[in-house]
Design goal:
There is one protein chain. By secondary structure, the protein is α+β, with helices and mostly antiparallel strands. It has one domain. It has a five-stranded antiparallel β-sheet with strand order 2-1-3-4-5, with helices on one face. It is globular, with a radius of gyration of 13 Å. The two termini are 16 Å apart.
């Protein structure tokens, strides 16, 4: 299923290393502030609102299967 979600992204260098669905933008920004305090200099965090393909795990939790990042010509999958 494809839905619009708020995502906390963790970058190491220019590569996305981790992504987590957040309940709201304010919760995402709070998590970003906390993570930034303990992260190394090469690690950067960003909160985005984006479309994502989601999947339901065996335990019932929902995770991101792929991100649909928007650009001028449409969407790219990550």
């Amino acid at each position: 299923m494809i839905e619009t979600v708020v995502i906390l992204l963790m970058f190491v260098g220019a590569e996305i290393k981790e992504h987590r669905i957040q309940p709201s933008m304010s919760e995402c920004l709070k998590g970003k502030r906390l993570a930034t305090r303990t992260a190394s200099a090469q690690t950067e965090f960003k909160c985005i609102k984006s479309k994502a393909e989601l999947e339901t795990n065996i335990d019932g939790s929902v995770s991101i299967k792929s991100l649909l990042l928007k650009w001028d010509g449409g969407f790219i999958y990550y």
